[in-house]
Specification:
Blueprint: H1 2-21, H2 40-43, E1 54-60, H3 64-74, H4 77-80, E2 83-89, H5 98-102, E3 108-112, H6 113-121, E4 126-131, E5 133-134, E6 144-148, E7 163-167, H7 173-185, E8 192-196, H8 199-208, E9 213-217, H9 220-226, E10 230-233, H10 235-239, E11 246-251, H11 252-257, H12 259-278, H13 280-291, H14 295-300, E12 305-306, H15 312-324, H16 334-337
Helix pairs in contact: 3-12, 3-13, 12-13
Length: 340
């Protein structure tokens, strides 16, 4: 799709400028970028392998993904691994956030797999260090949904043709969902036109009729349903039940500086995933404080599935579909791109 080509081209051009700007002095690489105050030394954390905590700053997708990391911090899982983690909402959606990671504004970033693979295929020095969000094995448990107005003629995914679809970012995992629907319906390319909007604005845009439908994640799915919108499809479980949707990335330079920090970060993510799997209701009860969510709403939402480790089957399937749909020119070296 044209939007994907544009996103990849813009990302590559921006990244080349950033990498060139950072490579002019002795040593080269991103370490020569202006100090953002988020590096371990600038934040006053312990040095790699030292006795103190290593300070890391992370950007994560608003909503469910952000709540997961915040819960891990609250539970002390990152501190247990020697990390003082600060997590904030991502500055943008999909690949548009990646330059901030390359500039050193963040040490870790949560991304959807499509955006991560797009960035790596474009030649950016990034590695997937831990698994992120995954969908459920059953449609009714999917944390994503395609929603429409109550009186919309759209009743199911079969009716999603010639529609404007609200998405939180162009060129991300929504591209897989849209192409999967188009392929299943036997529709022509371009039968669904993505319109980029932040999650909260998608709900309003559907209600106004600015878009015909929108892809949302929790808690926005349940918020929209409570406002009368209808779920007509569960897009991500439709690609593959249990599909890994998100990942967490670091730059190669950050990993080379201190490999154990990446390992410790992954261990903390795994511990958090284990905590939620063992006691999902404790996580649900913590959501109102973690992401300023109404307690009644927290009781209703579909929880994201968290496995901790990267699911290579999902990552490879995502890359294969991206190549099939023309979102990338060729598949990446998955073993090289994924650590932990």
């Amino acid at each position: 799709m044209k939007s994907s080509t544009y996103a990849c081209t813009a990302l590559t051009a921006t990244a080349v400028l950033l990498l060139s700007a950072c490579g002019g002095s002795e040593g080269g690489g991103l370490s020569d970028a202006p100090d953002s105050g988020n590096t371990p030394a600038a934040a006053g954390g312990g040095e790699c392998g030292g006795d103190g905590l290593t300070a890391l700053t992370m950007a994560e997708t608003p909503g469910g993904p952000l709540s997961f990391v915040a819960y891990g911090v609250q539970q002390g899982n990152f501190e247990e691994e020697g990390i003082d983690l600060t997590v904030t909402p991502s500055p943008g959606g999909g690949t548009t956030s990646v330059p901030a990671l390359l500039q050193g504004e963040y040490d870790v970033m949560g991304l959807d797999l499509v955006s991560a693979i797009t960035s790596i295929e474009a030649g950016l020095p990034l590695k997937m260090v831990s698994g992120g969000s995954s969908t459920s094995d059953e449609p009714e448990g999917d944390f994503s949904g395609v929603l429409v107005k109550p009186d919309s003629p759209i009743q199911s995914r079969e009716d999603l043709e010639g529609v404007r679809m609200g998405v939180n970012a162009l060129g991300n995992v929504n591209e897989l969902a849209i192409n999967d629907i188009i392929e299943e319906n036997g529709s022509a390319e371009g039968a669904i036109s993505p319109v980029e909007l932040p999650f909260p604005e998608i709900v309003a845009a559907i209600g106004r009729g600015d878009v015909d439908a929108g892809i949302l994640i929790e808690p926005f799915v349940t918020i929209a349903e409570n406002q009368g919108l209808r779920v007509v499809d569960r897009p991500w479980v439709g690609i593959k039940p249990g599909l890994q949707i998100g990942t967490m990335i670091m730059t190669e330079e950050k990993i080379d500086e201190c490999p154990e920090v990446a390992d410790n970060f992954a261990a903390a993510v795994q511990a958090t995933a284990d905590d939620i799997r063992e006691d999902p209701e404790a996580f649900r009860a913590a959501l109102p404080a973690l992401i300023d969510l109404d307690p009644a709403l927290a009781e209703e939402i579909n929880l994201i599935q968290w496995r901790g480790a990267s699911d290579m089957e999902s990552i490879e399937l995502t890359g294969q579909l991206m190549a099939e749909y023309g979102l990338i020119d060729e598949e990446i070296d998955y073993e090289d791109a994924v650590i932990n």
